[in-house]
């Protein structure tokens, strides 16, 4: 159902798609059921919010001291005695993130905690630079405008492109694109397009690495879906917002207060040891304080956490489901380094810069340009706060070595930082993001499990909707809550997504024609091989 059915779209895209919930009561009637939400990241917070708002008694278990998962922050004390916040790293809050924004509006209806950055600039070590500030937002003019404005596309480059190979991008539908492209790597798919090298680095690999994966290991279907979500399928554009303050203060503390107002018990630093099905249909959730019975359970964990909990809970699910969970993989490690420098960066440096060709460095954020806490420190000290990201690092590279390489590449990107003194530095080295490998789509768990009282949420979940990254986490959390509420006859949360199809009838027809030609060619090759 599109927004044209009468519902007001949540953004500027009039073709945004509304998925209404199943009919039901507004709230739980009678004695409320209980639900344990295991995991306090975006997915768990989304599930807990919808369940609690409908009258379910919710206890949220989080193993870390802070809420937010991979968008969390922890307090630190700097060398000068200043209290500051170290986070898991920069995240872009794109305007296509309708469901995540719906979650955040519970605590901030006007989303005043978010501020827009003026551009999404990209820079290659060769000197080529791109950005999206001047690119039109509405497809297909955004794609044409990007090509026309980008220095990475020359006349010869355009002649070398293979438009036929790009036809699947013109009509991306979540299930169909995985049927067609999940067996191909993002790297090989880009090869088939014959994109110019510079444009490939700037326009695609920067985005594919935002999945924390090397393009050689990432499914081409995930990259195509991402291209649809952020570019050809949406008119929201590629500009994004950032929180005005660190994640806990801007996002999760206010949301925790909202949850408390609906009776949610939040247990941080309380890892769950096991989930045990009971003969009465409920489940015992076991942590260090003992076992508590719940009517339903939401498993909103990262890959390692889900695998470990399922392994410690032999009664959960059936053999096939447990085997699928066991086969989930994590992406390679990533590193976030935040530097408190004794001087500002040069005037005009953007708040965020995507980079390519600078060794392991994938982006640079001048945090003091947009985050209040960092800006106040910079104003007092006369310095700046700069954050570096390195994705898909080699596991063989020691964290200290990787940190040194990121800092050295920063000096190449912003030479003025070479003479700056580092007053303090903090690092986050993690390997807990899901990997979406070639051929892995069918193996990923869905929200529903063999046990109707147990559901799964998180960005590792297969939703069959055009969502990714933080938005996939929020959407899956809403879907998990809806699945449980449906059992109790209660209406769940309505969901919004970008359209799950190409926006132009002509382009959809071209995509269908390309699929037919490709299928006929493949069938012919197989027939000739069988005859041989």
From TrEMBL:
Family annotation (Pfam families): Amino_oxidase
Matches recorded under SUPFAM superfamilies: FAD/NAD(P)-binding domain
Residue span, Amine oxidase domain: 42-485
InterPro entries: Amino_oxidase, FAD/NAD-bd_sf, Zeta_carotene_desat/Oxidored
Any GO molecular function: oxidoreductase activity
Region (Disordered): 1-33
Transmembrane segments: none
PANTHER family: AMINE OXIDASE, PROTOPORPHYRINOGEN OXIDASE
Protein name per Swiss-Prot or TrEMBL: Amine Oxidase
Protein source organism: Streptomyces leeuwenhoekii
């Amino acid at each position: 159902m599109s927004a044209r059915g009468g519902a007001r779209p949540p953004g500027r895209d009039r073709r945004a798609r509304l998925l209404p919930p199943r009919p039901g009561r507004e709230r739980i009637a009678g004695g409320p059921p209980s639900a344990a939400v295991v995991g306090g990241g975006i997915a768990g917070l989304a599930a807990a919010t919808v369940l609690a708002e409908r009258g379910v008694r919710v206890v949220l278990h989080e193993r870390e001291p802070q809420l937010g998962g991979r968008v969390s922050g922890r307090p630190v004390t700097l060398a000068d005695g200043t209290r500051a916040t170290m986070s898991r790293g920069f995240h872009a809050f794109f305007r296509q993130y309708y469901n995540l924004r719906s979650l955040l509006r519970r605590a901030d209806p006007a989303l005043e905690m978010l501020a827009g950055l003026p551009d999404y600039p990209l820079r290659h070590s060769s000197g080529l630079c791109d950005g999206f500030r001047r690119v039109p937002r509405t497809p297909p003019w955004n794609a044409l405008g990007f090509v026309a404005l980008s220095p990475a596309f020359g006349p010869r480059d355009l002649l070398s492109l293979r438009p036929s190979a790009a036809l699947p991008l013109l009509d991306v539908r979540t299930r169909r694109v995985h049927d067609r492209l999940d067996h191909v790597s993002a790297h090989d798919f880009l090869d088939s397009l014959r994109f110019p090298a510079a444009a490939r680095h700037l326009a695609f690999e920067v985005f594919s690495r935002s999945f924390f994966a090397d393009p050689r290991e990432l499914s081409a279907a995930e990259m195509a879906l991402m291209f649809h979500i952020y570019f050809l399928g949406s008119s929201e554009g590629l500009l994004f917002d950032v929180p005005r303050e660190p994640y806990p203060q801007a996002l999760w503390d206010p949301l925790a207060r909202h949850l408390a107002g609906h009776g949610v018990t939040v247990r941080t630093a309380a890892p769950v040891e096991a989930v045990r099905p009971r003969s009465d249909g409920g489940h015992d959730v076991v942590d260090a304080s003992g076992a508590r019975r719940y009517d339903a359970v939401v498993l909103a964990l990262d890959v390692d956490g889900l695998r470990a909990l399922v392994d410690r809970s032999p009664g959960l699910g059936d053999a096939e489901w447990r085997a699928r969970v066991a086969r989930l993989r994590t992406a390679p490690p990533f590193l976030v380094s935040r530097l408190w420098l004794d001087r500002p960066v040069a005037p005009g440096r953007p708040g965020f810069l995507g980079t390519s060709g600078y060794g392991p460095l994938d982006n640079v954020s001048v945090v003091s340009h947009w985050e209040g806490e960092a800006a106040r420190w910079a104003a007092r000290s006369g310095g700046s706060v700069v954050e570096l990201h390195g994705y898909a690092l080699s596991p063989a590279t020691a964290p200290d070595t990787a940190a040194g390489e990121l800092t050295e590449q920063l000096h190449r990107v912003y030479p003025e930082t070479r003479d700056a003194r580092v007053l303090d530095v903090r690092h986050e080295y993690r390997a807990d993001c899901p990997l979406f490998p070639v051929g892995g789509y069918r193996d990923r768990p869905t929200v529903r499990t063999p046990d109707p009282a147990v559901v799964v949420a998180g960005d590792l979940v297969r939703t069959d909707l055009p969502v990714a990254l933080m938005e996939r986490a929020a959407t899956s959390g809403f879907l998990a809550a809806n699945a449980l509420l449906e059992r109790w006859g209660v209406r769940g949360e309505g969901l919004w997504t970008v359209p799950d199809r190409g926006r132009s009838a002509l382009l959809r027809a071209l995509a269908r024609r390309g699929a037919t030609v490709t299928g006929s060619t493949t069938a012919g090759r197989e027939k000739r091989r069988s005859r041989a």
